[in-house]
Protein: SusD/RagB family nutrient-binding outer membrane lipoprotein
Amino acid sequence: MITNYKNLLFLALLGLGGLSSCNKQLDINTDPTRPASVSPDLVLPAGTGNVAFVMGAPFNILGNFFAQHWTESLTANQYKDYDRYRIGQTTNDREYQTLFTGGLKNFRFVMDRAKGDSSNYAAIAGLQSAYTYQVLADGFDKIPFTEALRGAANTQPKFDDGQVVYDGLITLIDESLAKINTSSTAVSVGGQDLVFSGDMNKWRRFGNTLKLKIYLRQIYARQAVAEAGIRALYAGGAQFLGATEDAQVTGFSNATQNGNPLYLADVNPSSGIANNIIASKTSTDYLANTNDPRIDDFFSRPGSTATVPNTTAAHVGTPQGDAIRGASGAISTRSRPNLQKIAGVASPVVLMSGAESLFLQAEAALRGLAGAATPRALYEAGIQASFAHFGRTVPTGFLSSTGIAFNGGSSAGFSEARLEQIITQKWVALNGTEGFEAWTELRRTKYPSFITGTPYSDLPNRTYAKRLIYPFTETSRNANAPAVQSAEVPVWWDKK
Structure:
């Protein structure tokens, strides 16, 4: 698989090229060049930029393939390995290194230096660190955590078990939330915060939502821990991200190399790897069968271009992995990730959406852990938030239609059928924008149940991928790296 993203350094996209020294040495086991003369207000957006690049392009692409929102174009080769679930020690090397050294290392720099009235910088960096560590742990399982980021003081950090990482993330979030300063003397973060523009109340809700996600992720592995943590959140009056409070990076444009990372990877003709991604029939069939108008938000119709959408052609999804069997068909005859709203030059990179927050709350309510909150109301609010993200309102009768209406009404207790409804609509809402999360929730819950491996899967029993593989650069340099597991081996919380 080609992994060259045509020099898509997100720091340059954001006009922060002067900070590139922070990210030149991509080796988490050695001490990279530290930006000693650079202040935290410049390093914070650099860290956010690196994380947004990974979550907006390579991990978003991987996740949308594994969640069967997307598949490989019939005239291309770039992502055929994803349709085969063929993952090796070089597949995600760059992403692993970038998240540690470009993201976490910069966040640690900010956390170490932003004190007193500048503590909001440290709070934001800590919360983004927790988000990034969870992505790494959910993908690779055991990761360096308690001994990570010590540079020359420890070039062989141990790999911590997932439970240790998850418990540490809750502590990290709590410590970060405690640093939020809303007094009149607090230094405003403002535009240096690429996610919420310095709105610390939104960051507080982000932290609570991230904690809710962390607890639900381990519901099948450590039920008592998960349930106690969720109950404590609600007992403490925690507020979560609202319907319109998407944690996302915006500000992309047509300026040279300033486009959305997915646009630069798969749409921009100068990328060298454009025109690889088309719509999976798994996704288009579900949207068509439920008469969901969001199909036109998630996908551009055949014949569309980046500047002129085709509004008349019927959508055409392609069976997952058809490119492997040698099927033919020009990309112009297939639906593609929406060329204006998903892969548009100015499309946002979504880290955590308001819709995702509401579906997390709906699951907590379904499990009886959210006080008086009702799962039906939160489920429907999640769907409405997904529509609103694309500037669309829910059509009359849609929420009561076949396949969408909440099973059992507002008084229904827990059932697997209702859980599958919630997770399936979350899967729909994450289409195109949060592919990594869609794949992760598929692994945790096994929903939507209609998603299986493909006849072209390289994995035993034609299953789908359950983890990512440690990169060779890590296993060859760190004697404490665990033995490499195959992609069909579940991560620690995958117990259902």
